[in-house]
């Protein structure tokens, strides 16, 4: 296969993986997040849960259907606490757990990354071609892997019409038909098992005289199925599409094999094209780890199939992700400690209008109210700035904070619908300026040069 066609395939697969639907919940505009996680599979979701439970709401940038390659697994038998679970069910459980922890999700395609300086910047494109820049103080890359192709004649032309890479996704087209599965690893066994429940006949084409498997018992049970036949010591050298079927030329025999469809299960390639020249990759494209899960760029971590070319298990991906999340938290935790020690954090928190009125009446200066939420990443980014203003401009105004859920009465009184927001009140309590988003930058100038 030429490099162009592989590139096209990788881009298509990347688009599928990183998705196309806009975010259904509140819009996320160009913002900075403490932890951005790229991916939607076991590693990404595990990292999200870990980071969320430590109190840092992460943003996960993923496709419309998070889950990753595990959803292709019909049967997972080595996940802790589960005797047997389908990959789809496991992915659903992880997704629910991440949602319950308050993880933010952004569905879109990452089209560019700038990791040359901090904060890192990710350019994300939605299906409506809306482009957002997401800034991150730390990042966990968990983009998984893309299916490998054979690179033989007839493959590209028939990809996704007669040749597929995911039996649970496309197997239903082959009810009572004949299919071939190419590969000799656990994925090939899983695909063959799935298809044997639907198809009349499943040929398994294996290039060696044995399978490469971590589950010999499962291999034996798949191979004992009456409609599964293994063709060992054989490779496919071309595909030819006919009107209703597909002919495979095989290396071991002059007689071609005619089936209705074929499934490739010959391993995967790390999904790291975005990071070429930006993070250190090995010659196969896997991210090189330098310090536990940390990559060649400090504060960027990798987990799962993007950096693991040996074990590639859901469990090992989850373990990597947990380590990556703990490393990211470590960095962020230090920041919080520094902020806590800072003299700028002693800004009064108010929770009622009575309290606000009392602040205004006791102050001869304007009052600046900062409306925020603990679960709002942009607020976390903005809070240090507000704290700095409070120190630097203490002679100009009195600074207070109002947090959602505890200061609802004040939010209602000022009709605050977005956070972070800042309202400047004159000495009588009358609002003279309200800011959010880019307008927040104007607050110091207004305090320094009141009209
Ligand atoms: P693997 O890399 O383990 O196996 C790839 C298979 O494809 C090998 O048999 C390999 O042959 C064959 N192959 C590679 N290139 C070609 C080619 N050009 N032509 C013909 N055959 C080729 O990939 P898998 O996707 O199967 O598995 C990846 C990892 O995921 C493994 O660690 C596996 O254990 C795990 N996994 C676990 C599952 C579970 O627990 N339920 C399910 C699926 C996967 P050869 O052996 O000759 O190199």
Short description:
Helices cover 30% and strands 24% of the residues. The protein is of the alpha/beta class and 451 residues long. The chain has 3 domains: 27-144 and 270-329, FAD/NAD(P)-binding domain, CATH 3.50.50.60; 155-264, FAD/NAD(P)-binding domain (3-Layer(bba) Sandwich), CATH 3.50.50.60; 348-448, Glutaredoxin.
Write the layout of secondary structure elements.
Blueprint: H1 3-18, E1 32-38, H2 42-53, E2 59-62, H3 87-100, E3 104-107, E4 109-114, E5 120-125, E6 131-141, E7 145-147, H4 155-158, E8 163-164, H5 167-170, E9 178-182, H6 186-196, E10 201-205, H7 216-223, E11 228-231, E12 236-241, E13 246-250, E14 257-259, E15 261-264, E16 268-270, E17 300-302, H8 314-341, E18 348-349, H9 353-362, E19 367-372, H10 377-392, E20 398-403, H11 408-413, E21 421-425, E22 431-436, H12 443-448
Parallel strand pairs: 1-2, 1-6, 2-3, 6-17, 8-15, 9-10, 9-15, 10-11, 18-20, 19-20
Antiparallel strand pairs: 4-5, 5-6, 7-16, 12-13, 13-14, 19-21, 21-22
Bound molecules: NADPH dihydro-nicotinamide-adenine-dinucleotide phosphate (NDP).
